[in-house]
Structures are given as structure tokens and as C-alpha cells.
From TrEMBL:
Key words, A-Z: Membrane, Transmembrane, Transmembrane helix
The protein's name in its UniProt record: DEBR0S2_18866g1_1
Signal peptide region: none
Keyword Disulfide bond: no
Membrane-spanning segments: 109-132, 152-174
Pfam families: DUF2470
Alphabetized InterPro entries for the sequence: DUF2470 (IPR019595), Haem_oxidase_HugZ-like_sf (IPR037119)
Organism: Dekkera bruxellensis
Domain DUF2470: 14-82
Superkingdom to which the source organism belongs: Eukaryota
Length: 212
């Protein structure tokens, strides 16, 4: 069954507000302050109309295709291509990521347990050393060195993971327009897991791109 104007409009309406904003800014040449509350009003073989602005003063932007399309299947394909181009020009992906993947695999859970154990040991050096001496029968010098090693490991992880958060994770969060509360959660997870979390989050992003 051939696509209709309504079919194409419906496919670009729900959950695509960010794409319409990209259209208004890139193709409509509006500022980000102007391109607010967009709504796709009409789709034809020649282009689209997007309304935007406050409810009391709505405006309409007409965005024309480079040439008239033969049918709405072709129009939809062109719009998808234009969506990706507009997002790319603004430094974004055309897809949004709103969920943050939490640790779920046994190896990930084990890592978190070890991390909290090292953190606890680093912040309670006297108690940890006493535990090694009294219950594990480790000598005092060896227990002290072990606690010092835990502190070094924790500091190393903090510096390394902070760098990875700033240089590797943040650009991905920006690209997929992750909401600020979710960005904060992702940053905390990355500070603990580092590359393990970044790779898990990147797999989620790749799956979203592939599915759609």
C-alpha cells in the first residue's frame, strides 16, 4: 500500500521534536531561541511546513525539497536523509538516547563490589589494616602496604576515569542529546567503571542507530 502524506507526517511527528528543531535551524535558518515547540503541520511532494513558537504567536516555516518528489515513499526517504544531514550539521545524531545502561552482567557486578571494597579500605585505613592483621594474620607492615596500594589504585582509577569521562564519554552524551539528569548518572557510572561503561553505552547507541 502506497504511503500517504498523513503516513509520512505521523512517522515524523511523535518523538521527533528534536529533528524538527534541527530542520528549523538548518533549513529554516532560525536561531535556537526561535525554534521552540515545533509541530509538523503538513507534508507534500514539494516540501514540509513546521509551525513553531509560543501558542499566542505561532509562526510557520516552509521548507522546500530540492525538487518535487514522485511519491511519498520517495519524500519520506528524502526527509530521513535531510534529518540526518541537519543533525550532523549541528554536531548531533538524529537519534536521542534517554536511557543509561546500568551494570547487569556478573562481571560488572563483581567489579562494583571490588570497587566499593577498595574505596572503603582507602577511607578507613586503620580499620582495614587492623582487619588484615587480626583476621587474616598479615603482618603490620604488609597490612600498611596493602592499604597504601588500595589508595594508589583508587587515585589512579579516579584520574583515569575522570579523563575518560571528559574526553570520551561527554562527546557521546552531547551527540545523542542525553538529558542532563541522565548525563549526571552516566558520569557517575563512568567515574567508577571507566571504559567498561563507555563501551556499554556505545553499544546501546549503535543498537539504536541500527534498529532505526
Amino acid at each position: 500500500m502506497a504511503l500517504t502524506s498523513g503516513d509520512v507526517k505521523a512517522s515524523l511527528s511523535v518523538g521527533h521534536e528534536h529533528n524538527l528543531i534541527d530542520f528549523l535551524i538548518v533549513y529554516g535558518r532560525l536561531s535556537s531561541k526561535e525554534a521552540v515547540d515545533p509541530k509538523l503541520e503538513n507534508v507534500t511532494l514539494k516540501g514540509i511546513k513546521i509551525s513553531y513558537g509560543a501558542k499566542s504567536a505561532r509562526k510557520v516555516a516552509k521548507i522546500k525539497f530540492n525538487r518535487e518528489q514522485k511519491d511519498y515513499e520517495q519524500a519520506k526517504s528524502l526527509l530521513i536523509s535531510m534529518t540526518k544531514e541537519a543533525s550532523s550539521k549541528r554536531g548531533y545524531s538524529s537519534y536521542l538516547i534517554r536511557e543509561i545502561p546500568l551494570p547487569s552482567k556478573p562481571i560488572e557486578i563483581l567489579y562494583w563490589i571490588l570497587f566499593f571494597a577498595i574505596t572503603y579500605a582507602s577511607f578507613t585505613p586503620a580499620e582495614t589494616a587492623a582487619f588484615f592483621v587480626n583476621y587474616l594474620h598479615v603482618s603490620v607492615p604488609a597490612a600498611t602496604k596493602t592499604v597504601s596500594a588500595f589508595k594508589w589504585i583508587l587515585n589512579f582509577l579516579f584520574v583515569t576515569h575522570s579523563t575518560e569521562t571528559a574526553t570520551s564519554l561527554n562527546p557521546i552524551l552531547f551527540k545523542y542529546r542525553v538529558p542532563i539528569p541522565k548525563r549526571m548518572l552516566a558520569s557517575v557510572l563512568c567515574l567508577v567503571e571507566g571504559k567498561f561503561f563507555i563501551n556499554r553505552f556505545q553499544r546501546l547507541c549503535d543498537s539504536v542507530e541500527h534498529q532505526q
